[in-house]
């Protein structure tokens, strides 16, 4: 466990060094954060056009949480980039599981996503007349973090499959977070979809976490909120388990045929 934590720490330090080399706080605030805030506002304005404050509330809260998923799934690009740069073999040789290395490399992006989503949650609702149950609403960023970790595990799993097809990394990233935004209750309730599709969405990250946040804001019973959060944690753990198996399979095959050295 000590080796795992040490590698995780150094992976985080390395990723922060690379991230801060091209992303200053000014650049992050006035380009990336502002872009995500504008995206959330765009959907909230659709609710305004529909003439329904209820729609404004639904769309704004959904997209405030969804902006986090964009950053969380960037781990797909980071993981595939390691193979393209030829450092995958070195990462596999680390004194820990290779999954730990990958998890550490993208934590900065996860933090960026949670920070952006939390900022949107604090700034945008007053602008659109969305009422929040303060001071209890201060717990929502913690729920956003739970959803972010779940989405990060999902992105790591997708990355484990895309490693064999590096040229598809951008397609995989865009499809991954768009699937979450489309089917997980961000803009339309999950009840809108047919039963078979709802069954699939129930094992996607953000579905239960977003439902928990909506229930919390609506002042639903604590059992409802905690139940949905527990399901979100289980979903994230499931995606992480699949990622671990997929990475192990990829590494074993790469060691066997020598393809682990190739950038693809």
TrEMBL record:
Molecular function, one GO term: ABC-type transporter activity
Keyword list, A-Z: Membrane, Transmembrane, Transmembrane helix
Membrane topology label: Multi-pass membrane protein
TM region positions: 27-46, 58-80, 110-130, 142-165, 171-189, 229-247
Location of the ABC-2 type transporter transmembrane domain: 20-215
Pfam family for this entry, one: ABC2_membrane
Main location per the UniProt record: membrane
An annotated GO cellular component: membrane
Subcellular location per the Swiss-Prot or TrEMBL entry: Membrane
Xref: InterPro entries: ABC2_TM, Nod_factor_ABC_transporter
Record-given protein name: ABC-2 type transport system permease protein
Naturally occurring in which organism (per UniProt): Saccharothrix carnea
Taxonomy of the source species: Bacteria, Bacillati, Actinomycetota, Actinomycetes, Pseudonocardiales
């Amino acid at each position: 466990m000590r080796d795992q934590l040490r590698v995780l720490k150094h992976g985080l330090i390395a990723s922060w060094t690379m991230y801060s080399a091209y992303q200053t706080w000014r650049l992050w605030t006035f380009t990336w954060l502002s872009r995500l805030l504008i995206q959330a506002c765009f959907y909230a304005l659709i609710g305004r056009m529909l003439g329904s404050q209820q729609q404004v509330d639904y769309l704004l809260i959904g997209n405030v949480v969804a902006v986090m998923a964009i950053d969380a799934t960037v781990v797909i690009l980071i993981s595939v980039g390691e193979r393209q740069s030829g450092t995958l073999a070195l990462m596999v040789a680390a004194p820990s599981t290779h999954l730990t290395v990958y998890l550490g490399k993208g934590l900065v992006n996860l933090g960026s996503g949670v920070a952006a989503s939390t900022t949107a949650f604090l700034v945008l609702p007053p602008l659109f007349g969305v009422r929040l149950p303060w001071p209890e609403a201060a717990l929502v960023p913690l729920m956003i973090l739970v959803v972010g970790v779940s989405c990060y595990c999902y992105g790591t799993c997708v990355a484990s499959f895309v490693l064999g097809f590096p040229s598809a990394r951008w397609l995989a990233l865009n499809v991954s977070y768009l699937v979450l935004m489309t089917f997980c209750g961000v803009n339309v309730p999950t009840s809108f979809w047919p039963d078979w599709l709802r069954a699939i969405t129930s094992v996607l990250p953000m579905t239960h976490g977003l439902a928990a946040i909506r229930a919390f804001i609506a002042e639903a019973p604590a059992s409802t909120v905690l139940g949905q959060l527990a399901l979100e944690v289980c979903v994230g753990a499931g995606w992480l388990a699949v990622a671990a198996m997929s990475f192990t399979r990829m590494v074993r095959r790469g060691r066997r045929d020598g393809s682990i050295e190739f950038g693809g």
